[in-house]
Amino acid sequence: RAGGQGPAGPSPAGTCPRPRHAGAAHAQSAAGGPAMAPRVLPLPRQRSFLPPSVRNPFAHPRRLSAADKLRTILLGIILLPLRAICIVIILLLAWVFASIATFRHPRKGSVPLKGWRRTMIQRALSCLTRTVFFVMGFRVKVKGKIAGPLEAPIFVAAPHSSFFDAIVSALTGMPSMVSRAENLSAPLFGTILSSLQPVSVSRQDPDSRKNTVTEITNRAMSGGQWPQILIFPEGTCTNRSCLITFKQGAFIPRVPVQPVLLRYPNKLDTVTWTWQGYSFKELCVMTLCQPFTRVEVEFLPVHVPTEEEKKDPILFANRVRESMASALNVPVTDHTFEDCRLMISAGQLTLPMEAGLVEFTKISKKLNLKWNHVREQLDTFAAIASASKGGRIGIEEFAEYLKLPVSDVLKELFLLFDRNGDGTIDFREYVIGLSILCNPANTEETIQMAFKLFDMDDDGTITEDEFACIIQSALGLPELDVSQLFKEIDADETGKLSYDEFKDFALKHPEYAKLFTTYLELQRYQLNMAEEDDFEPPEANDAPARKSTGAGSETTATARNKAHPDGNEDDNSSTSDKKDD
Fold it and tell me: Most buried of the four, 91, 97, 211, 230, by CB within 10 Å?
């Protein structure tokens, strides 16, 4: 509700009106008097929108000291060529066994390998894979008991931080995995991978995701006819500082799963493969140049889903993730692979890559946002933050983007966006602010009300003088030049704003809608504060109050009827009604 708190209509003298109490507050501030008292927000921040405990799980800094580099080079002169030769020989042997096991197998990939074929894969390839990791210098420590196919058809391994996580396959008897269809056609590795009968995912097939889930479900419920399935539910690599959102594919079949934990307790980390950090080739070379690399693989007890979890795969996935995070003693966050895509886009827009991280799972679910929409907002954010350092928006950049000076109203709006109170707005806060604050305020009713307030002579258009008068009054800056902002709204360059032009600009720039409603809220707050300061016993000021109400009734009624033209024009409304307005 706005009512009489908006600017009133034109006065008989033709001067620009000032809202009640607001002008006095601004004048007092301009004269060096006490500034406006800080307003306490009526609603607390939603804890579910607090920043994640781990800001960027997709970055791994380069921390090789000079001594580490020297030791790597000296050891690499001997270890690297010897290990490389051994790995090539073992891979050729694995290719031979894989070719034999799949030779003339009917409907390759559509029916499970059985008999001697499956035994050869489980024993020969498992042994050769262990040998490869031993040659590379890996020292593997296994904890817990590995579940059989009937006990747990699916393994879920986390945290997924490296291509070396494939060691889990050797320990679990070479289970099937989810792999891109393109990988099956790769020379050498394609044959080895095909022998494991992976669940293939095709980027060209629009129904690939649905078909993948169906295939996983059919295999998991086959009663042991198919090999067990190994899934990394995070869907991308992280730096092991937390567990990000688990995808639902492993939990939709509603069968028991065995959680598998991966740890790399090494002083020098040469295995972590993230979006920001060492490349695939660099990690391979550095790892092969180390004397040994420790890895711990822990098999937790099988998680049998409850009836509630069977009905809700998301709940099933979250509870498994919580149990794994508790065993690892790390937090959980709502980051996903979509955050990685936004992070890459941020880098392309010359922003720090971590600026694109918004915890997409949480944001998209709570605010009903699609990835493409968030990506478009990233473009706008980059345009605002381009002049600032660190990929954040300060109050100056915010004011420059809105083409308005820094004022109490603008500071109030900025405070609503700045959720953590650090004096800047990051991209996550910007997305939440637009969705929670600006878009709900940018309704047809709000736009119509704003247009009627600006259209002071009720002729269906807004002139630059009318536009300037209201903006100057609202911000308490009578000398403010708003010609540039007016020209940007005036698409047809007629010197007047039609409702369609006004509405089109408001829809494209929802920040102004919240700026407008914030201004009205501030006026209401200042009015209430003034009434509390001037409060006296009813017996003492009953008559003056009636006189004051009568004297100011014309202006108040005009403002209220401008905002609500269909409302009651009777001037005999009660004091409580005026306060509500």
Answer: 230
Contact of 386 with 378, CB cutoff 8 Å: no
Q: Enter the tokens of residue 307.
A: 């009836």
Each residue's pLDDT tens digit, 293-312: 999 999 999 999 999 999 99
Longest dimension (CA), the chain: 104
Query: CA 381, 387, 388, 394: dihedral to nearest 10 degrees?
Result: -70
CATH 1.10.238.10 fits 349-438, yes or no: yes
Give the residue range(s) of CATH 1.10.238.10 domains in the chain: 349-438, 448-528
CA distance 278 to 410: 43
Identify the CATH number of the domain defined by range 448-528. 1.10.238.10
C-alpha span between 271 and 137 (Å, rounded): 12
Reported confidence tier of residue 451, pLDDT bands at 50, 70, 90: confident
Side by side, the strands of the sheet bearing 257-263 are 138-143, 293-299, 257-263, 154-158, 229-231, 176-180, 199-201
Q: pLDDT, tens digit, for every residue of 47-94?
A: 555 666 677 899 888 777 888 888 889 988 999 999 999 999 999 999
Structure tokens, 50: 């607090």
